[in-house]
Design brief:
Layout (H helix, E strand, L loop, with lengths): L10 E7 L2 E7 L11 H10 L2 H6 L4 H14 L6 E8 L11 H8 L19 E2 L3 E5 L7 E6 L4 E5 L4 E4 L2 E7 L5 H13 L8 E8 L5 E5 L6 E4 L7 E2 L3 E3 L2 H18 L7
Parallel strand pairs: 9-11
Antiparallel strand pairs: 1-2, 3-7, 3-10, 4-5, 5-6, 6-7, 8-9, 10-13, 10-14, 11-12
C-alpha cells in the first residue's frame, strides 16, 4: 500500500529505508528534498565546495569522481591526497576484470622500491559500481586505487605519520610523499596502456583538508626532518594537465611532486 504525503512550508517527514533515517524537508516553493544521510552529505559537500568547484569548473566528471571517492572512503573530515586521471577519449572502454588488469592493480610484478610499497596490496582487488578497487586493508584502508570501466583512474592516501614538534606529536605530510605521483602514473600506464605507449588523458590531484597536516622536510644537517606549519588553504588543487606518451606522464608526475614540495617551501632535488 502506498502513502502520499503533501509537504507544506516547514513540514518535515522522517521515515526509515533499511537502516538509514531519511528526513525530507519540503515546501510548495519547489525546494528539493534534503537527505539526512551521512554519505550523501559528504558527496554534496565536495561538489558544492567553492574551491573545488572553481578548480574543476571545466572538468565536472573529475569533480564528481572525487566526490564519490571521498564519500566511499569517508574522507570528508580527513586530510587526504587524491590523484586522478581520465582519458580524453570519451569512448574509452576497459575490461577491468581481466586477470592482467587485476594483477596490475594489485601490484604484481611492480617495483618495490618506494617507501610505502607503490600501491601494492596483498588483498584481492574488489569489483565496484565503477570498476575495480585495490586497497591495503579491507576494513580500515589507508589508501585505495581504483580503475574504472571508462578508463578513469583515481587513487588516494590518507595515512600520514605523526612527528614530534616542540612538546607535541603532529600529523605531517613528509617531503617523500612527492614520490606518490610517479607511483600513480606508473600504475595508470600499466592498467590503461599495457602495450607501453601511454594514452592521452587529463591528470590532476587534490590535497583535502590541508591545514590538518604540518609539513615535514629534511633538516639541513643529518637525516632528521624539520616540521613546519601547515598550509592555511583548506584544499590545495593541482592544475589539470594534459598527458599522452609515457614521457609526458613521467614529466607531469615529476612536476606534481615538485609542487607538493612547494607546500613546505622545499626546492626539488635538495
Amino acid at each position: 500500500m502506498t502513502s502520499m504525503v503533501l509537504l507544506m512550508p516547514s513540514t518535515t517527514l522522517v521515515f526509515r529505508v533499511g537502516s538509514a533515517n531519511i528526513r525530507l524537508i519540503g515546501s510548495h516553493t519547489g525546494n528539493p528534498p534534503e537527505y539526512n544521510r551521512q554519505g550523501s552529505k559528504h558527496l554534496l559537500m565536495v561538489i558544492e565546495d567553492p574551491t573545488l568547484r572553481l578548480a574543476y569548473a571545466d572538468h565536472p566528471k573529475m569533480l564528481h569522481r572525487l566526490a564519490e571517492f571521498v564519500d566511499r572512503y569517508l574522507l570528508e573530515d580527513k586530510p587526504a591526497l587524491v590523484i586522478q586521471a581520465t582519458p580524453t577519449n570519451e569512448d574509452f572502454e576497459a575490461d577491468v576484470l581481466l586477470p592482467s588488469s587485476v594483477a596490475s592493480l594489485q601490484g604484481v610484478g611492480s617495483d618495490q622500491n618506494s617507501w610505502w610499497n607503490c600501491f601494492r596490496t596483498n588483498y584481492q582487488p574488489r569489483p565496484t559500481f565503477r570498476g575495480v578497487a585495490a586497497f591495503d586493508e579491507r576494513d580500515a584502508a589507508n589508501w585505495a586505487y581504483e580503475f574504472h570501466r571508462d578508463g578513469h583512474l583515481i587513487a588516494g592516501i590518507w595515512r600520514f605519520p605523526s612527528m614530534h614538534k616542540v612538546n607535541a606529536e603532529v600529523v605531517c605530510l613528509p617531503d617523500f610523499y612527492a614520490e606518490i605521483f610517479e607511483d600513480f602514473a606508473n600504475k595508470a600506464l600499466r592498467l590503461a596502456a599495457p602495450e607501453g605507449n601511454g594514452f592521452p588523458a587529463r591528470l590532476t590531484a587534490t590535497l583535502l583538508n590541508a591545514p590538518d597536516l604540518h609539513f615535514a622536510k629534511k633538516a639541513d644537517f643529518g637525516n632528521m626532518h624539520v616540521v613546519v606549519p601547515p598550509s592555511r588553504t583548506r584544499h590545495l588543487c593541482w592544475r589539470v594537465r594534459q598527458v599522452g606518451d609515457v614521457a609526458s606522464w613521467q614529466l607531469a608526475a615529476e612536476r606534481m611532486g615538485a609542487e607538493l614540495l612547494g607546500i613546505g617551501g622545499v626546492k626539488p632535488g635538495v
